[in-house]
Amino acid sequence: MKPALSRSLLRRMKRRNAITIFLAAVLLSGCSSTIPSRPEATLREDVTLTLKHPERWTLPSGLTVMYLPDDELPTVQGKLYLRCGSLYDTPGKFGVATAAL
Questions:
Q1: Are 58 and 64 in contact (CB under 8 A)?
Q2: Closest to 82 measured CA to CA, from 68, 61, 67, 52
Q3: Please, which pLDDT band fits residue 14 given cuts at 50, 70 and 90?
Q4: What are phi and psi of 26, to 5 degrees?
Q5: pLDDT band at 92 (very low <50, low <70, confident <90, very high)
Q6: CB within 8 A of 68, min separation 6: which ones?
Q7: pLDDT digits (tens, 9 = 90+) for 23-75
Q8: Can you tell me whether residue 32 is helix, strand or coil?
Q9: Taking CA 21 as the corner, what is the angle to CA 18 and CA 22, rounded to the nearest 5 degrees?
Q10: pLDDT at 64
Q11: Measuring CA to CA, how many Å separate 48 from each of 45, 51, 69?
Q12: pTM of the entire structure?
């Protein structure tokens, strides 16, 4: 059997919930006035995007290395892409490109 909550505790909980709902309504009503009615009404700056082109090297083994420096964070990241799979199989010889990996 659960103990019954006292009336004063129930009144405080109802008051706290009412205050929370009131504050949420006030905050949300303030947010709605800042949203423009049309997208064209927003102020925006012209954005220019400059793409960096990676440096490319081809090693004597035929491996192509692409280098793109990014000084934003002191980290190093590497990715390896291999040309293998059923796309590179010769006709009549299935699975050779994958097995050669």
A1: yes
A2: 61
A3: confident
A4: -65, -45
A5: confident
A6: 52, 54, 55
A7: 888 777 766 556 667 776 667 777 788 888 889 999 998 888 888 888 888 88
A8: helix
A9: 85
A10: 86
A11: 9, 10, 20
A12: 0.37
For the chain, where are the alpha helices, taking DSSP H only? 7-32, 96-99
Residue type for 98, please? T
From first CA to last CA, the distance across the chain in angstroms is 68
Determine contact, residues 41/30, Cβ cutoff 8 Å: no
The dihedrals phi and psi of 19, each to the nearest 5 degrees, come to -65, -40
Contacts of 100 (CB under 8 A, 6+ apart): 84
Single-letter residue type at 77: Q
